[in-house]
Each structure stands twice: as structure tokens, then as C-alpha cells.
Amino acid sequence: MNREEAISAVLGAVPNSAFLVTTTGLISREVFAQRDRDRNLYLLGSMGLASSIGLGLALLRPSTHVVVLEGDGSALMSLGVLPSIAAERPRRFTHVILDNEAYESTGSQPSISGRFDLSAVGTTAGYASSLAATDADSFADAIREASSQTGPFLVVAKVALDPSLRTPPRVSLSPVAIRDRFRQAFSNASADASVK
Amino acid sequence: MIEATAFWSQLKQHITLFSGVPDSTFGRSYNALADDPEVRFVAAVREDSALGIASAAGLAGKRGAVVMQNSGIGNVVNAITSFNLVYQVPALLIIGWRGYRGADSDAPEHAVMGEKSAAILDVLGVHNAVLDEAGWQRQVDDLISKMDAEHSPVALFVPPGVLQA
């Protein structure tokens, strides 16, 4: 599965109601190109910060499903956040790592994840469950399962580098526009939740 | 000296979500905050992660704060410059200022950051103030107003001996 296929699998499996925090670089650009939505928070910079922001959002509103989508480089940069997530136990939290064993956004320099089992970190950190996927179907199934059960869940997918892929365009929204749209969607969801 | 319970009570009126990494400037009063059932406090392992967690409040229309030591300023610079300042997401940094009274006033590892702490935040354009026993309540309220009005992170430095630890 290449990057396009992996992100297509994620976007097809994540519930419409979920809030999605995406890491810097090609992952945010690919998500923006495939399925832009108000509930997406694209981090244009701040590598390594997606999981912390996602954790904060999940703790502020435990009834809201939060999905963090990042790469192996970003996850490795803030690996200490995984035990923090496990310690806080957000119930509706899915942490998805696309592991292509490289820093693709900066020129596909190799990362160390080829010699390191990221999904094992979810288990040792104390996530409710940690799954590894190698094909698009099992990946989507794992995300659907994570969305229906009490988390936090970690889903790690091995993704192949594919030089034939086009480079998706940059996210054309300004950071402040991304913030405003996301904040409005999060507030509206709060109103919905209080009605139920 | 400012009484710790009064200090945190004042902050609790404004802040929904706290995160942090301990500093001896806060001593046992840090535990009191972390264990306060009226407070949502998340123990972080690094200051940038703490800022990410607290910043979620700014994205939810609420306010977040980070409690930390000034040595952690180095760890939050990237989060401040590539997230908080460009997305205009506010957060309050409550920073214990080790080495505040000069290089010889504290352990040697605090000599450099002790001298440069406010200067680094000034360069970044992060408004900051040093906690003052006289009129500290007003100081806190003013910082919160500034953070709201400018949608920007702001910092409150706490020198050793000012807050009951």
C-alpha cells in the first residue's frame, strides 16, 4: 500500500463525526487533497505535536472521537507522548501511524523505524489495543474496530515509498483559517453532544 | 510570599486545562494543583508536549496553561513558533525561573538560561511578566486579557521564593 492508498483507507474508515489531527508535510497535504473537511486540523509545521494536541482535545471532550494521523518520523520525535496517552486513557482516541520507514516529506531519508517495532510501543505504553496492518483492507478494518471500542487504540500501517506518486499541493488554507474552521466545528459538536 | 492555594485558585478561574513538567520553584504546590479534583491536569513528559496538550483548549474556545521550569523554554520554542504564533492559538506558560538572581544564585546548569529566559521570549514576541507579590492578582488578570485579545501565548515567570512552594 502506498501513501495515497493508505490515506484513502484511513479516510474511508474514520467516522464522519470524528475530529482528525494530521501531522506536518505530505500527510496533511494528502488528506487535504483527498478529503478536506471542517473537522480536520492540519498541522503545517510543529512536527511531533499532533499527538499532544489530539490528546488535549480528547480529554476536553471525552465523548468526542479524536483521530491522530502521523508518520513514523513524527511519532518517533514525540515517542514520550504515547505513555502519556496510555496514562490518561482517552476513551475515544485512535492514534494512526503511517510507517514508511522514511522522512518522505524531506526527501525520503531513512528513519530508524525499519529497525524498530512502533506497534510494540502501543502495547508496552499501555494502549487498550495496538494493531499492525500491511494491506489497505486490514488497515481500514483496524481503524473501524478502533472507532467502535473503548480506546486508546494504536494502529500502525507499513506504507511503501512510491516515487511514481504525484506530490499533493500544499494546504491552501491559512493556519488561522484552519483554526477558525476547526474551532467552530468542535464547538458545534459540543452543542450536538449536549442535546443528546 | 504568595499563598499557593490563592495563586492556583485565581488561575483556576480562567484556565480549563493544565499540563506541565515539575519545577522546584513550585515544590509541593505543584502536586496540590496536579491532584486538585477541580482541575484537569495532564502530566506531560516534555514541555512541548505539555504545550500541545494545553493548546487544545485554545482550539476548543477555552484556555490552557503549562507549568514548567525555565530550562524547558528550549523545548517549547518550535511549538511556539510553528504552531501557537502562526495559528494564533493562545496558552499561558507559568514558568519557574531558576537562576533568576544571577549565575551564582542557583545551580550551575541554570546560569545561562537563568540570564536569557525573558530575552528568548522577547525575541519570539511572547509577552511575559515576572510574578510580583504586590498586585499579583491584577497581573494574572492582565495576562489573561492580553492572551485573549492577541490570541497569543503569554508567560508568567515565577522567581524562587515568591510563591509558597
CATH topology of chain B: Rossmann fold
Mean pLDDT of chain A: 95
Helix/strand/pairing category of chain B: alpha/beta
β content of chain B, as a range?
15-25%
| Sequence of secondary-structure elements of chain B | HEHEHEHEHEHE
Within CATH, the superfamily of chain A carries the name: Thiamin diphosphate (ThDP)-binding fold, Pyr/PP domains
Looking at CATH, the homologous superfamily of chain B is Thiamin diphosphate (ThDP)-binding fold, Pyr/PP domains
Indicate the overall shape of chain B. Answer: globular
N to C succession of SSEs of chain A: HEHEHEHHEEEHEHEH
Instruction: Please mark out the parts of chain B with pLDDT under 50 across 5 or more consecutive residues, or reply none.
Output: none
Give the termini separation of chain A: 39 Å
**Alpha-carbon distance between the two ends of chain B:** 10 Å
User: For the largest interface in this structure, which chains are involved and how many residues does each contribute?
Assistant: A-B, 34 and 33 residues
Number of helices of chain A: 8
For the largest beta sheet of chain A, what order do the strands appear in spatially?
Answer: 2-1-3-4-8-7
- Relative strand content of chain A: 15-25%
Number of strands of chain B: 6
Whole-number radius of gyration of chain B? 14 Å
CATH C-level label of chain B:
Alpha Beta
What does this structure look like?
The complex is a heterodimer of chains A (196) and B (165). With 196 residues, chain A is α/β, with parallel strands linked by helices. Chain A has a single domain, classed as 3-Layer(aba) Sandwich (Rossmann fold), CATH 3.40.50.970. Helices cover 45% and strands 18% of the residues of chain A. Chain A is built from eight helices and eight strands, in the order H-E-H-E-H-E-H-H-E-E-E-H-E-H-E-H. In chain A, strands 2-1-3-4-8-7 form a six-stranded parallel β-sheet, sandwiched between helices. In chain A, strand 1, helix 2 and strand 2 form a beta-alpha-beta unit. The longest helix of chain A has 21 residues. The mean pLDDT of chain A is 95. With 165 residues, chain B is α/β, with parallel strands linked by helices. Chain B has a single domain, classed as Rossmann fold, CATH 3.40.50.970. In chain B, strands 2-1-3-4-6-5 form a six-stranded parallel β-sheet, sandwiched between helices. In chain B, helix 4 packs parallel to helix 5. The longest helix of chain B is centred in the middle third of the chain and has 15 residues. Chain B is globular, with a radius of gyration of 14 Å. The model of chain B has no long low-confidence stretch (mean pLDDT 96). Chains A and B meet through helix 3, helix 5 and helix 8 of A and strand 2, helix 3 and helix 4 of B.
